[in-house]
Write a structure and sequence with these properties.
There is one protein chain. Helix content is 27%, strand content 34%. The protein is of the alpha+beta class. It has 2 domains: 2-47; 54-162, no CATH class.
């Protein structure tokens, strides 16, 4: 679908350029206006999200651990998608057993689809405590994003352990 939009936008742009160069000077304003009227809808269609749902994401489960009592599942995963301007990220998820994994319901980060975390691991301490360990991007651009962490879910305390780089 994106290729069709790109092709239509390109054709519209070429039509505008051809109209401007082929017409005489006194027709230029009228032709520019006509070109703008013809191209504007095509450009606006290009700005509409025509496939922005997350159904086409590729989610790879890296590790999945059931709680000792079997009521909950902790998962570390990677997710990719988004086409040409795509995204790829790692995160962890905690859900009730039997529920489907929601790749946007991560335990770390304000922006769930930023690649701010790597080497994500999950481990149950007991039925009420989950340890999530990971490396995180420490650059200033990620400071606000990385400050957001889910501390508790379903009454389960989540212990975040940030792995340090070995110099």
């Amino acid at each position: 679908m994106a290729r069709i939009v790109i092709a239509v936008v390109t054709l519209g742009a070429f039509a505008c350029l051809a109209a401007i160069t082929l017409e005489k000077m006194y027709h230029r304003k009228r032709m520019c206006l006509l070109g703008l009227v013809l191209c504007l809808p095509v450009l606006l269609i290009g700005c509409v999200d025509l496939g922005g749902d997350r159904e086409n994401d590729e989610v790879e489960i890296l590790s999945e651990k059931k709680s000792p009592n079997g009521k909950y599942v902790a998962t570390s995963f990677s997710c990719s998608g988004g086409g040409a301007a795509g995204y790829f990220y790692f995160n962890a998820n905690l859900r009730k057993a039997g529920e489907e994994l929601d790749q946007l319901d991560g335990l770390m980060g304000k922006h769930k689809d930023w690649k701010a975390f790597t080497e994500v691991e999950v481990r149950w301490i007991d039925d009420e405590n989950l340890k999530v360990s990971y490396k995180q991007d420490e650059s200033p651009a990620y400071k606000e994003n990385n400050a957001v962490k889910v501390e508790s879910k379903y009454g389960i305390k989540i212990h975040h352990l940030i792995k340090k780089e070995i110099p």
